[in-house]
Amino acid sequence: MKQLLTFIRKEFLHVFRDRKTLLMLFGLPIAQIVLFGFALSNEIKDSRIALVDYSKDAVTTRLIGKIESSHYFDIRRSLASGQQLDAAFKRGDIKMAVIFPQGFGDDLIHTGKATLQVIADASDPNQATTITNYLEQIVTDYNAELASNAPQPMQIVPEMQMLYNPELRGAPNFVPGVMALVLMLVCTMMTSVAIVREKELGTMEILLVSPFKPVYIIISKLAPNLLISIVNLFIILLLSDIFLDLPVKGSIVLLVSCSILFILTCLSIGLLLSISAKTQQAAMMGSLMGMMLPTMLLTGFLFPIENMPLPLQVISNLVPSRWYFIIIKRVMLKGLGFGAVWKETLILAGMCTALFAISLRNFKIRLQ
Amino acid sequence: MITLDKITKTYNKGQVEAVKEVSLEVKPGELFGLIGPDGAGKTTIFRILTTLLLADKGTATVNGFDVVKDYVKIRNSVGYMPGRFSLYQDLTIEENLHFFATVFGTTIEANYDLIKDIYQQIEPFKDRRAGKLSGGMKQKLALCCALIHKPAVLFLDEPTTGVDVVSRKEFWEMLGRLKNEGITILVSTPYMDEATRCDRIALIQKGSILSVDEPEGIIRNFPVELFAVHAANTHRLLKEVRGYEGTDSCFAFGDALHVTFKGAVVADGQGKSAAGGQGEASGLLPYLRAKGLEDVRMEKITPGIEDCFINLLKN
């Protein structure tokens, strides 16, 4: 036991003395959360838009006032004619134009219905969809206001160029994905170099020619990585709660236990890589190429798995992060209990046990 | 204490023969040297004996244990210092030593006596990281780590490679002291001049043992008389001596040439007095002077291990 503790202590010393790697280990999740949460957020502020009012009545004035008061738009009024609009779009001066046709207010009052023309610059489809959505929201609000005040039904219909993009996702969906990705990468990459490094240094020769049991070597290698990953997990949860307004809705104990199970699974993958690889570089490349892409693509947080061709759907079942992603979404976002995730947890536990057993079997007690 | 019986080991699916039918015996308490150039198969033999590699053919035992069946017992009882510096570069001297002591189930204090002489030399730097040590200090630390659990057998693979002359000398003095503690030591080295420090040596080349004997015995068995030839211009001298028809072999050693001659009586190995005659030695000096070489001198010398090694290779 004392041997094991000393070995684990040594592994911690390795980790803490390698400042660059340490910085990367903790910097990566923070950077990812910030990137996905803020920088890559779908919220777009101060988009330049043009408002063209051919009607100039009470209704259009009120609606324009509402649009102006939202912080989403930066309004250019100087554009009057169709040609000017066209030129402004081409120069990229405006992202969207909102046109109130002549007699807009009259139409609304007399026929109970008026049409609003919205043209958006679709060269950046995501942005275009987002800003038209904002506008639609404002119009919907105004409609509701009208409905509550007027005796007969009145409705303004924005005539959109684009349809709502159902795949457009926000920060809530990114956080579980980032958690899966970060834990997967950090765990497999750190562990993948752990044993192969001893082989490269030649220290493995001494360790093998010692009373120390191979399983102890493995446990000692995993211990610091497990701890670092758990710290990372809490950093991510804390960041998403404080900055992204995404607290854990379900049981934190359940979430953390499931996460530890997932971490152990990833550590086992790294272990297997480390045992099989000949050099640190090969192990690193293996964990990057072999883990990064499948995790990104087959987890379901960038591309929905249901839309994939059947062979890919089958393969995605083998990616542990796919199951973990489901677990966090249910526990963290929807606040569901163990009853909702027991199947996924069982699958992860099975994967973890199998991978660890294979690693232990493949651990070479001799050179070559 | 250590036996090898017709051990053969090949790499790359039999294409490279690293060790060919090597048989050896190391007695208890012996300081045994495995002497040979790089690539002779020394490290392979060490790895087979330390149970790190499996031999293709043959059997070997260490301390009475079979290297294949009883590998766990061997691993518990031997000390091994691999050829490459194999300690943790990012740990300090003390941390390395403490780590290896604990892994081997002992403490620094328990066996401090054994390593004291060596450790005292590096103790002033005990908080320095191993990666920042000089070559000699690294080897001393590695030796301390290999010794800390008081092994019955110590395997040292090229412990003095890359170490300065002074440290090499100190290192061999330490090995002598360890031998006095009763530890059996198998050591390998590419430096022929270190061979005389061993009780017995095996000369090895291309995976085969050329000769096993005490260093004096190997020197005694040098079959003919050996001469050192000097001249002002060593480079030209080498050319001319090789051109002399009575020359049997001629190699440069520093600024001298070591020469044997054809027609020398081959010794029967029963002592130096009976050893071979001079052969065609007498004709060399006049020949060289006739070729216009200046300051030519020649004297009879006692061969070194390296001379013996070259001579064995030739046959």
Note down, in words, how this protein is organized.
- The complex is a heterodimer of chains A (368) and B (315).
- By secondary structure, chain A is of the alpha/beta class.
- Helix content of chain A is 67%, strand content 8%.
- Chain A has a 5-stranded mixed sheet.
- In chain A, helix 1 packs across helix 9 (214-242), helix 7 (171-201) runs antiparallel to helix 9 and helix 10 runs antiparallel to helix 13.
- Chain A is elongated and about 95 Å long.
- Mean pLDDT of chain A is 81; it is low at 162-170.
- With 315 residues, chain B is of the alpha/beta class.
- Chain B has 10 helices and 14 strands.
- In chain B, the strands form 3 sheets. A 6-stranded mixed sheet of chain B has the order 6-7-8-3-9-10, sandwiched between helices. In chain B, strands 2-1-4-5 form a 4-stranded antiparallel sheet, with helices on one face.
- In chain B, helix 3 runs parallel beside helix 5.
- Residues 269-275 of chain B have low confidence and may be disordered.
Determine the fraction of residues in helical runs of chain B and give it as a percent range.
Answer: 25-40%
- Helix/strand class of chain B: alpha/beta
Oligomer: heterodimer
Widest β-sheet, arrangement of strands of chain B: 6-7-8-3-9-10
Q: Which radius of gyration of chain A do the C-alpha atoms yield?
A: 28 Å
Principal-axes shape call of chain B: globular
Tally of helical segments of chain A? 14
